[in-house]
Amino acid sequence: MKTVLCGLLAMALGTMAAAPDREFLVGAAVAPITPPLPFWLSGYAARTNMALSVRSPLHAKALAIEDRAGQRVVIVTTDLIGLPREVSDAAAERIMREHGLSRSQILFNSSHTHCGPAVWPNLQVLFAMNNADMEQTRQYASTLARTLASVASNALAARAPARLACGNGRATFAINRRPPRAVGAQAPAAPTDHDVPVISITDPNGLIRAILFGYACHNTTLGADFAEVDGDYAGQAQRELENAFPGCTALFLMLCGGDQNPSPRGQYAHVENHGRALAAAVRAALGGPRREIHGPLRTAWREIPLAFAPHQRADFEAELGSTHVFRQRRARLMLADYDAGRPRRELRYPIQGIALGTGLTLLGLGGEVVVDYALRARREFPDHPLLVAGYCNDVACYIPSLRVLREGGYEPVDSMIYYGLPGPFAEDVEDRVFRGLTAVIEDLHRRR
Predict the structure, then answer these.
(1) Tell me, what's the pLDDT at 188?
(2) What is the structure's pLDDT at 1?
(3) Fewer CB atoms inside 10 Å of the end CB: C or N, the chain?
C-alpha cells in the first residue's frame, strides 16, 4: 500500500530548531488500508457474503508529538474492527527499532467499524474461510502491520512547531444497548457517555492542522445486510472535519463504547446524520472554551493478567456436540489448547497512559471496554483530566464491568464464543483493571 503523507507543515528540521519558543513538534500522516476486493468483512456472525465494493475508503492515521525535552509519543488510529496483538506488536516492534521509542510511547486504536476487513486472527470464529480466503486475510494482516509502522514513521518525519489545546463537545446518538435490569421495583437508567473530547493541533499561524477526537459508541450503524467497505459514522465524521478545515487531518479515537450502539441505525442516511452530529460536536468544542496543553510528555505501560472463570476439558467436549456452528468452532480451538497442554486460564491485558503535561491524561485500554470503566475512572481520579479510550493495542474480547458480568448476556458471556475464548472472566475483572489503571497513573505521576 502506498502511504500518503500529510505533514503539518513543509518545514525542515533546521527550521524547527530556529523556533526555540515552540511548545511541541507535531506531525500527522495518513495511509490507505482499504482491503483488496472481494474480502471478508468482520463484526457480524450473520454476515455470509464477502464485500464486493467500497462505499468509503478506510485509513490508518498517525499523530506524532514531541515535547521540548525530546520526549515523543505516536498515536495511530485505524478504520478497523480492532487490532489483534499479533498486528499491533509487529508494528510497534518496527517503530521502536527504527525510532528508538519504547512500547509505552506508541498507542494504537481502532474505530470498530463493522464494515471493515477481517484482521487475522481477530474474531476468526466468525468465518468459514477456504484456504485462498485465509491466505488473503493473513496477507492483509501482514501488510497492515508494515503500513502502521510506515504511517507512524511518516508522522514522525513531518514534525513541525505546533500548539495543543483540549476541549469537550457533546453528541447524544449513543444509547446503552443492554436492557435495564430491575433493582427491586425499579430498573436503573442504563449508563451512557455523551462526552466528545477534542484535542486540537494548530500551527504557529493559528491554523488547525490536526484534530484528535473521540466518542463512546459502537460503529454499528450499518447491519449485517450491508456488505460494502465503509468507516461508518466515525469515517463520516472524519471526512466532515477534513472538509471543514482544509489541510487538517482528523483522527477518531474509539472510547469505552462496548455496550453502546448508535440510534437510530440500519440505513446509510443514519451513518451520514451521526457523522455530521459528531463533527458538529467537535466544531462546537473548537469554538468553545479550551485548555492549552503544555509539556512535558510522560508515558507508562502495564500488562496485567485477567483471569477467566474456571473451565475444564469436558466443557468443550460437550460444546463440540452443539448444533451451534460457532460454539463448535470455539470448542475446537479450546480443545486444541488442552491438547497442547496450555488451556487458556487468563488474558494478558495492556493498559497504557500518556500524560500531556497536567492538561490531559489519555488512558488506553485493550478490548471492547464497557462504558462503566470511563465513568468510574473519572470519579476515582478527579484530579487528573482524563480521556479514557477502549479498543487500544489489543482488541481480544469484551471487557465487562462487574455489573455487566453479573447481569450476563452478550458482552460478558456470548461474545466470548466469537472471540474464541473459553468463557466469561472471573468476578475480579473490574478490580484487576482498576488496580492496573491506578498503577499506570502512579507511574505517570512519579515521572513528573
Answers:
(1) 65
(2) 41
(3) C
Task: Please tell me the distance from the alpha carbon of residue 351 to that of residue 345, in angstroms, as a whole number.
Answer: 19
The Cα-based distances of 111 to 119, 351, 411 in angstroms read 13, 18, 18
Decide: 279 and 191 in contact? Cβ < 8 Å. Answer: no
Closest by CA to 344, choosing from 292, 306, 392, is: 306
Look at the alpha carbons of 371, 372, 375, 376 in this order and tell me if their dihedral is positive or negative.
negative
Lookup: cell for 169: 463537545
* C-beta of residue 30 within 8 angstroms of C-beta of residue 151: yes
Tell me, yes or no, if the pTM score tops 0.70.
yes
Evaluate whether 361 touches 197 at the Cβ level (below 8 Å). no
Rounded CA-CA distance 351/434 in Å is 10
Nearest to 432 by CA among 351, 319, 317: 351
Domain extents in the chain:
13-180+189-294, 309-339
DSSP state of 41: B
Q: Quote the cell numbers at residue 232.
A: 461508518
What average pLDDT does this structure show over 303-310? 98
Mean pLDDT (the chain) is 93
Query: How far is it, in rounded angstroms, from Cα 197 to Cα 175?
Result: 18
Whether the per-residue pLDDT at 187 is higher than 70: the answer is: no
pLDDT in tens, 140-173: 999 999 999 999 999 999 999 999 999 999 999 9
Asked whether the beta carbons of 394 and 350 are under 8 A apart, the reply is yes
* CA dihedral of 178, 179, 183, 185, whole degrees rounded to 10: 170
